[in-house]
Design a protein that fits this description.
Radius of gyration: 16 Å
CATH topology of one domain: Elongation Factor Tu (Ef-tu), domain 3
Oligomer: single chain
Number of helices: 4
Number of strands: 14
Shape: globular
Strand content: 35-45%
Strand order of the largest sheet: 4-3-6-1-2-5
CATH architecture of one domain: Beta Barrel
Helix content: 10-25%
């Protein structure tokens, strides 16, 4: 059940260029891997959607990249500050897969530590633009890392059940090679539960509210 709470920041750690924000769990349910939460930094009127990265006992962890005012404000929070967290929201990955393979690009690695823990550390292929960004691969066990110009699609294994997250061009390429893949898409979100229609995206000619229909969708 989704809830909104002000949660105390436990730690703010750098992982390459990314920030890993750990907060007390409070009474929030971590939900399923691939679901997301809306995080509201102190003094910011609009929250930002973040996949749950880690769910150790008593905590929730979120990996984020500072790319705008909202994410920069979240990346600047300090221990003992409180941020508002709302969730879990959306639909996560189906976990009834026989041979899972996690495929991620850049900050798309964010949901994989939690997903990997639930699935028992399956193999992963993670792509990054630089060695500095690739430091985030340390959060995902059993991962093969590729750095541009090498692409994750060059290492795909067709006999596995692909669970992917990353930039849209990567997801489209994975979709072509693995038509049964599960793909976690990204879109700007203002509410997280379908009221504002801000995250409507066109997929195969149909508009979908990603926060309600996704963010994880079947490639087919």
């Amino acid at each position: 059940m989704r809830r909104r709470e002000a949660l105390r920041v436990v730690a703010n750690e750098s992982v390459g260029p990314y920030s890993l924000i750990r907060v007390e769990r409070g009474s929030l349910d971590p939900g399923s891997p691939g679901q997301f939460f809306m995080l509201e930094a102190p003094g910011r009127p609009l929250p930002r959607p973040m996949s749950l990265c880690q769910a150790p006992p008593g905590e929730l962890g979120f990996l984020l990249e500072s790319i705008g005012p909202g994410t920069r404000a979240l990346a600047a929070v300090e221990p003992r500050e409180k941020i508002h967290v709302f969730g879990p929201l959306g639909n996560g990955y189906r976990l009834d897969v026989e041979r899972p393979l996690l495929v991620g690009g850049g900050i798309g690695v964010a949901p994989f530590p939690y997903l990997s823990a639930v699935l028992g550390s399956p193999p992963a292929i993670l792509g990054f633009r630089s060695d500095w960004h690739a430091e985030a691969a340390s959060l995902v066990p059993n991962a093969e890392v590729v750095v541009e110009p090498t692409l994750v699609t060059e290492r795909l294994r067709p006999d596995h059940d692909v669970l992917a997250c990353g930039p849209e061009p990567m997801l489209e390429a994975v979709r072509e090679l693995a038509p049964n893949a599960q793909l976690a898409w990204e879109a700007p979100m203002a509410c997280g539960y379908g009221a504002c229609y801000g995250c409507s995206v066109e997929i195969d000619g149909v508009l979908k509210r990603l926060c309600v229909a996704g963010p994880v969708l079947e490639a087919a």
